[in-house]
Amino acid sequence: MIEYAGDDKQMLAESIQVCQWFKELGADFINVSIGFNTPTANIPWGPAFLAPIAERVRKESGLPVATAWGVDIPELANSTIEKGQLDVVMVGRAHLANPNWTYIAAKALGIDRPAWVLPAPYAHWLERYTPAGAQ
């Protein structure tokens, strides 16, 4: 678990309070991110480093949460959902690097009929496609 002290701890508590206000005003979802807005910010860079923070925001605000930071590996994305840290994993950067990321992730995670994570017209074609020379 990530520990915060001083200004970082206060800013996180204040951010959670703002999320609670958003919920009271009708918000139904929060994307947890980081603003790099203080020179003393202690950013714990690493895989899915915002997932534990998002989990805390989720528990204390009562809002479903998402994040994108450091969640590019299919197994890691899946585990943050299974652990209840995130409700949604944003994978925009992964898609920029590889537009086929969703399909590849579904295959890596052993999803039955992985093509069907795509829109139906693509899935229909992809399930029937056999590259030249392949069996």
Descriptive overview:
This protein is mostly helical. It folds into two domains: 6-91, no CATH class; 98-135, no CATH class. 46% of the residues lie in helices and 5% in strands. The protein contains six helices and three strands. It has helices spanning 6-24, 51-61, 74-82, 92-97, 101-108, 120-128; strands spanning 30-31, 65-67, 88-89. The chain has a three-stranded parallel sheet, covered by helices on one side. Strand 1 (30-31), helix 2 (51-61) and strand 2 form a beta-alpha-beta unit. The longest helix is centred in the first third of the chain and has 19 residues, at 6-24. It starts with 5 loop residues before the first helix and ends in a 7-residue tail after the last helix.
Name a few traits of the molecule:
135 residues; mainly alpha; three-stranded parallel β-sheet; 6 helices; 46% helix; 5% strand; elongated
- Mean pLDDT, to the nearest integer, reads 88
Task: Tell me the strand percentage band.
Answer: 5-15%
End-to-end separation: 48 Å
Q: Could you say how many structural domains there are in total? A: 2
Oligomer: single chain
Radius of gyration: 18 Å
Category from helices, strands and their pairing: mainly alpha
Give the overall shape, derived from the CA principal axes: elongated
